[in-house]
Design goal:
two-stranded antiparallel sheet; 5-stranded mixed sheet; SKP1/BTB/POZ_sf; NPH3/RPT2-like; about 150 residues; Potassium Channel Kv1.1, Chain A; 7 strands; globular; 5 helices; alpha/beta
Length: about 150
Amino acid sequence: MACMKLGAKSEAFHREGQTWLCTTGLPSDVIIQVGEMSFHLHKFPLLSKSGLLERLIEESSGEEGSACSLQLHGVPGGAKAFELVTKFCYGVKIELTALNVVILRCAAEYLQMTEDYEQGNLIAQAEKFNDMLKSSTLLQDALIPWP
């Protein structure tokens, strides 16, 4: 199956029950609830890639040094898609595949992960991979002999 690998870092997260924790050694400064799953993260990797998260974090940031808490409702693909999006934001290795590209593209759109925030952001990467899939399907169809 075709896939596109994004990111270079090894795994930077671990799961404890219904909670994903970042293992960078720095305390998290934002907690995002997606469905039943809680993600303890850092603002900067999210702000640099997501227009929606930038706006929500800005609106809900309180005292300096206190963690910001957000609830995201309606994330396409739910917590599983958000987990992959989060890994993308941190530069952790993820694979785009024919099975996940559409839902990741939808989640990236929901989170406003456009080129305005970073060149090669997730919307562009998902579109690039989807175009590659379409091209390979067209090529395969062209090479299959007629009956």
